[in-house]
Here is the input.
Amino acid sequence: MKATNAMQEHPQAVITQEGLAGLIGGLRAEGFRVIGPTLRDEAIVYDDIESLGDLPSGWTDEQDGGHYRVKRRQDAALFGYNVGPHAWKRFLHPPLLRMWRAEKTADGMTVTQTAEPAERYAFLAVRSCELHAIAIQDRVFLQGPYVDPHYQARREGAFIIAVNCGQAGGTCFCTSMNTGPKAAEGYDLALTELIADEHEFLVEVGSERGAALLASVPNRPADLQHSALAANAIARAEGNMGRQMRSDDVRDLLLANLEHPRWDDVAERCLTCGNCTMVCPTCFCTAVEDTNDLSGAAERKRRWDSCFTMDFSYIHGGSVRSSGKSRYRQWMTHKLANWVDQFGTSGCVGCGRCITWCPVGIDITEEVRAIRGEEVSDGRA
Amino acid sequence: MDRLAEIAPVMAPDAMLPRVVRVAKRTRDLPDTWTLELVAADGAPLPRYEPGQFTMLYVFGIGEIPVSISGDAADGSRIVQTIRAVGKVSEAFGRLTVGDTLGLRGPFGTAWPVAEGYEHDVVVVAGGLGLAPLRPALYRLQAERKRFGKLVLLYGTRRPEDILFRRQLANWRKQLDMEIEVTVDHAGHDWRGHVGVVTKLIPRLGVDAANTVALVCGPEVMMRFSASALHDIGMPEDAIHLSLERNMKCAVGLCGHCQFAGSFICKDGAVMRYDTVRRLLALKEI
Amino acid sequence: MEGLERIVAEHRLFEGLGDEFIKLAAGCAKNVRFNADQYLFHAEDPADWIYLVRHGRVALELATPGRGAVQFETLGEGEIAGLTWLLPPYRWGYDARAIELVRAIALDAQCLRDKCEVDHDLGYALLKRFLPVLVQRLQATRLQMLDVYGSPR
Here is the structure.
């Protein structure tokens, strides 16, 4: 997937909307299930894409702490929004997964694996922050002492078409986390939407199979104008970030302040609803469910879990983290500090979903500022 | 378009899939504590383990929990595990009989660094059920007795009736070149041993503290105070090892439940060095 | 008396106490011995003696109806039975029983209290030695009270 040689060997190209439709069609013809952004229930979510018509043409999103609205754009941009409540982890690391089934036999028990075979996914419109989030989960699931075969099956062979953001969202801070807005690596193809005289897409190649797919649709070399338009779009995004967070010192800052009074302050606001963990593209915690059926068989499933639940840290008749304060602190220090020790990078990619989808608008960038001792606005949602 | 052909992944083994083992022997140690001897039931040899490691044991239709291995690692024919009934799954172990099957995953976790004790004195401090995960270390210490200096076992528990492996401790006291001191929090009139916290036995240790290795296991409060007392008599903090415990679901570092600040107890522990955890142990709700 | 001075000086509690003080303290001391299961003192008795254990073990216990005697502490060589001599109303709060043969130095509590009243330096030196024992026992008792080994249910 990380084939930067391919980027050097294959020059930038331009395709039309028909070309984009051809990319989608080509992937589907090869047996990929194409997933991309689509408008549903007043949000832009990730679901099956069969044709260009499924994309949220002419829509954008308006995001702030505890606030998400879709709005009509003045143009017909297909990718003129940022990220919604879904992350690609819902496909690579399924929310509910069957694992195995146990049955009693005459002299004991048998255990049979029941995991559904992985589908071949093609992800369309993966943002740079999301590429980093996927890379972060790769480290968790593929590079530790134990590999998760379910993630591995879905991840290896997944085709990725990235999209460079032409605008930043109200809660975005990828520039602070060095995760965007320009997609740098980890994709097969990267598109930048160009809306000028024509409505076209600059295409950058990230792998040999990306090059092959591009070659299967009409395309022409990009000229200086196209490159400039694309660069402008990305610069616009870069300059418009809704949030900022100084990130070079966060690990040490948080680990030195585990008893800072700010934790009590945020505890008064946090509902421990766990929304942040559901929408965060890197949160990976799971729990197991053991169920029995009437035939006498027992089944084990794996499902997403959240460190905000009381059960999460339960041992010997009680939870280690029973206060809301300790659970919020666990989430934030894991994400920004402990993750660095565990996996070598921050766990945060600056996508802003946790800020947008928090019912009370808790803003992780503001919490960091407060702990650092800087001025914070009292702008509570 | 040929290049889009799928790359077939070489799938990693599924560490969440249990093997089937059979109960060969079941002993009731205490009213709420059992020791099971497990043998393979699927034709393949049992995995070998290191003292201090644990397995995830699955009771059909009920659930799976981490359980200490309490047997002799030199015996590859069985895995001996000790369980205390504190919940739905652990209680179910008390209803098992010889011949019943269980699911087993593992062994997991870090080991007691017994080899660090070579040419040193070794102090083992156990509290309550903590004697169970320490017993494999004690077996190994005895098996290689000549390589260690003084060996001391300090064991504290609630009452004389709660002493785990009581007969074995009595035999060891008679047979082995190891000092064993047992203390209880309170006792009836007939008890002739020590009464008091296990930390009280530490200042009396006749060991070369600067050259001693300590292995400590028991309730977290007890481990904190014991480690502190050991350090107070001159033991270096990096020579004291504790076995920590947290909620576990996968035991392979992927479910996130066992996190203790930046460590996953299932893979960075359960045995951890005191100097790396001392500050965290003093913080509430970490 | 000289032999007793030496014995007092050798006891862990009096380690490092100057010769003068040892002499003063030894002036209130005598050698005692208890056979197994003999009581050193009973709860509610006047706290007349302090016992510095030289050999053997002593159980501190409280009698409770229906449960018999409950031991909450055992003391051995180098330890002290009876700290309540320091404070009015100078009464023992528990029983002390020899588990096995016990040899001890018994210090006359009243004699020692009188000497401390006259010689405050002696009083301070002794308090400095008894107080840490009291504090350690308090901390240990707290741990015992937490019932850390108890079943969570």
